[in-house]
Amino acid sequence: MLTVHPKESASMLTRDGVRLDADIYRPDAEGEFPVLLMRQPYGRAIASTVVYAHPSWYAAHGYIVVIQDVRGRGTSQGEFKLFVNEIEDGEDAVNWAADLPGSNGKVGMYGFSYQGMTQLYAAVAKPPALKTICPAMIAYDLYSDWVYEGGAFCLQTNLGWAIQLAAETARLQGDAAAHHTLYAAAQNIPLYDPVPSLNECLRKLAPNAFYHEWLEHSQPDSYWEEISPKKYLQNVDLPMFHIGGWFDTYMRGTLHLYKDFAARSAYRQQLLVGPWAHLPWSRKVGDVDFGIEALNPVDRLQVKWFDQFLKGIDRGLSQEPPVCLFEMGSNQWRKFNDWHKEHHKLYYLSSSGLASVREDEGKLTTIYAQLCPSDVIVHDPWRPVPSLGGHAALPAGSFERSHIDRRSDVLTYTTAPLESDLHFAGDVAVEVWCDADTPHHDLCAVLSEVCTDGKVYNLTQGYLHVNDMRSPLRVVLQPTCVRIAKGNALRLSLSAACFPAYPINPGTGSPMASTRLMDSQIVTLTLHCGGDRPSQVLLPVVAPSQ
C-alpha cells in the first residue's frame, strides 16, 4: 500500500455556476491514477464510513478519491432538491474529476443509498470518463423500490429519513431551534399516529419536504417516472458491481437494477448480497449473529473491481460466477451463475380453521389438501400487529418473534420438522385466496424459521396494500438466500398490519394523508386453504453447496 498525501479541499462550478465543494485524497507517489468519486448529501467528512473504509484507505491502493457535497449540502452552494439536479451535476462532477491533476482520465463511482443514487444519475449522461460504478442499496424505480412496497407507504423508513434531511437543512440554515426539535424527533421517531398524517415536526419545520409530495402521489404516476433513474438508464451500459443486503429496505431496487442490466448489458454485471440491514454491514443483524463470514468484504472487493476496470489489471473476475449470495443458516457465501427466478417448490396452506388460535393448527405441506376449512382473523386498528425486524422496520434484521405469532390476529402455518436441510435462494412469493368485508385492507406475510427450542426467527417478509376484491392475492416477499436446518421448520405468518413499518390501512379507501385513526374500520379477513382455492408459498429451492 502507498502512503497518502494530507487531505485537500477543492471546488468546481456546475454549468449553471453553482460551486460544489469536495475533499480529495491522493496517493503520495509519482504517476497518474484513476479517480474514485462519491457524491453525497450528509457532509463530505463522513464519506460513508458507516459502511466503507475511509477514503485514505482507497487512496493508499493507488486511487485519487474525491468526496463531494451535492448541491445545497455540506458547504456546496445552491438549493438541495431531492434527486432533481443529480444528472447534470453528476456529469459535471465526473468531467471535473477526470481532469484533476494526476488523474489518468478514468473515473469510477462508489457509495450506498443516496450516494448510490448519484451514481445512477451521473451514468444517465454517459460522460466518457465514467468507466464503471458500484451502486449499493439503491432504487431503480423510486415508487416501488424506495417509497412504496406493494402499494403501501414505507412509513418508518421514509419518515425517519425525511426528519434526518430536514434536520440537516435546519443546521445549514442556522436554525438552532428547528434543528434541536428535529434531532430529538430523529432519536425517537414520532410514530404514534397509525396513519401517515403530515407529522407535526415536518409540517411546521419543513413544509416543503419531499415527504409531503410522496404521500400525495400514492400511485405510480408520471411524478415517479420523471424522477426515477429507470426511465433514463435504458440506453446506458456500464460494468456495474451491485451490492445489497437481505434486510435492506432497498433490496428490491438493487435486484431490479441488476436483473435489468444482467439481461441486456455487454459488460460484466456482478451482484453481492450480504445478510446486512441498510447499515451497518456487520455480522450481527437484529438478534442473530451470522458469524465471521458475514463481516463486510466490500472494500477489498471494490478495489479488485476498480483495478480491473480502471487500471486494466486482470483480477480474474471473468472466471468467477457473477452472483455471490450470503446463505443465512449455513452462514457462508455461495456463488451462482445467475439469479434464480423460478419457483421450484410449493408449500400449500392447510388448517382446521384455528390457525389464529393455536400455533400447531395451521400447516404448511407439500401435499395438496382437498378439504380444509377457512381461517378468519379480525384486524383492529386500535391494536395493530406490530412490526419487528425484517427489511422495513427500524431496527431491521432477524428477531425472535414467537410472541407476535401467538396473537389472535396472526395466522400461522408451519411445516413438520424438516427431514433434511432446505436451501432456497431467489425470489419468494405467497399466493393467498382471501375474502374481506371491505375491498380496502392490507396483507403482511412473514416467513420464519422455527427452531427445535421453539424460538422463531424471521427470514423474509412482504406487504401488500389491497384496494379491490381480487383473489388470489400475490404478496412478493423480500428476496433471500437461506438454509433451514434438518429438524427445524418453516413457518408462514399472515396478518393485516405491520405497524409502524407501514401505516394502518383505514379500510375506507380514503387517501392516507387525510385519514385519522378514529375513522379507521375493523376489518375481517377470511383465508381459504385447499379445494379450488389453494393458498400457497412459492420457494426457489436450490441444491446444497458442494
Automatic annotation (TrEMBL):
Name used for this protein in its record: CocE/NonD family hydrolase
Entry keyword annotation includes Transmembrane helix: no
UniProt keyword Oxidoreductase, yes or no: no
GO molecular function terms listed in the Swiss-Prot or TrEMBL record: hydrolase activity
Domain Xaa-Pro dipeptidyl-peptidase C-terminal as annotated: residue spans: 303-538
Gene3D superfamilies: alpha-amino acid ester hydrolase ( Helical cap domain), alpha/beta hydrolase, Galactose-binding domain-like
Alphabetical list of Pfam families matching this protein: Peptidase_S15 (PF02129), PepX_C (PF08530)
Assigned keywords, A-Z: Hydrolase
